[in-house]
Amino acid sequence: MRQLTAQEARTFLESGKTTARILLDVRQPFEYQEAHLPGAQLVPLAELPDRLGEIARDKPVVVYCRSGHRSMAAAGILESHGFDVLNLQGGISAWEGAAAVGEPHQGLAFCLAAQDAESVWLLACGLEMVLQEFYEEFMSRAETQDLRLAFRQLAGFEVRHRERIYRLYAKERPGALEREEFEQEAWRRVPGDRDGDLAEGGVEPRRFAESSGLRIEGARDALELAMQFEAQALDFYSRCGVRVGSGEAAAAMQQMAQEEQAHLRMLAGFLERQAAGQEA
């Protein structure tokens, strides 16, 4: 059984495709809801022996709990049944990366309604548009110049991500909608009313910002909020891709997960530079 430190686990999880490994949370559902690693599959330790069939055997399994004790027991069970297991030392308490919140099925209902790749790209674009609107609203209300610039930059990220989504959608697709038509249709498909739209991660931005407990008083706070959204998005698309299983729609969802993972890494870099600038 291989042991991974928090930093080693973060490097391992970020170094490859989300489809190349299984991330297994063996805590209880209420613990998962409070915080979990993006894309993690929940199978509580007590249920694991009866649910081994739900875990893919052809990929490495990174297993974790709160502090590393339950995951050690889970890793032993998995290893004895032929799984390739890596245990996260110190559990989520030692985790140094971004985390996600919410129930295992949060947001899946409306995403799983997208049974073809075109619907997935439309949905993804619509969710990006909601988040862009959210950042632009905060930009207009910002009380300082650095905070306005931070939210303007974050809104710009979403614009570029929408452009990337459209290129992925239109690539080698006969009869693809023009960009303007595509975005109009994407906006129409976003579930909820204008005061309660769902954004990346299957959550409503304003309520999520309030429930996160993060006070947005500077650029660093804005970046941390954005990282929370991107962690939610990575979690959301990863789980959707697993639930869909295979085919073009699943591949599209996994591509979105990879995009969100790259976006999360970029934001982490911005946050580190922001912190370094404040310390200088």
Q: What would your notes on this structure say?
A:
- The mean pLDDT is 85.
- The protein has 2 domains: 2-94, Rhodanese-like domain (Oxidized Rhodanese, domain 1), CATH 3.40.250.10; 108-279, Ferritin, core subunit, four-helix bundle (Ferritin, Up-down Bundle).
- The protein has helices spanning 6-15, 29-34, 69-80, 91-94, 108-112, 117-141, 145-170, 179-189, 205-212, 219-244, 248-279, and strands spanning 2-4, 22-25, 41-42, 61-64, 85-88.
- Helix 2 (29-34) links the parallel strand 2 and strand 3.
- It is built from 11 helices and 5 strands.
- It has a 5-stranded parallel β-sheet with strand order 1-5-4-2-3.
- Helix 6 (117-141) runs parallel beside helix 11 (248-279), helix 7 packs parallel to helix 10 and helix 10 runs antiparallel to helix 11 (248-279).
Structural features:
globular; single chain; five-stranded parallel sheet; alpha/beta; 280 residues; 2 domains; Ferritin; Oxidized Rhodanese, domain 1
